[in-house]
Amino acid sequence: MLAGMPVSDDEMTSVSFALIAIRLNHENRVAKMRRLQRCCRRALISVGLALVALNFLLCIGYLFLTLTQHASSW
Which keywords belong to this entry (predicted)? Predict the structure, then answer.
């Protein structure tokens, strides 16, 4: 193939197919990354809520412990 010569239909078809394949691969990678980010966000929110719940339970346990100690000291 020499520079400046017109390309054949087969070559144009191959180039067009390659460009479409590159675009589809890019879109698939972007979609996969977005799904992964969404999954990680949900996991972080779940872990955060679990930590908040555990903190609440520890505070309630500490409150009951201190209340029972004050009630039993005579």
Answer: Membrane, Transmembrane, Transmembrane helix
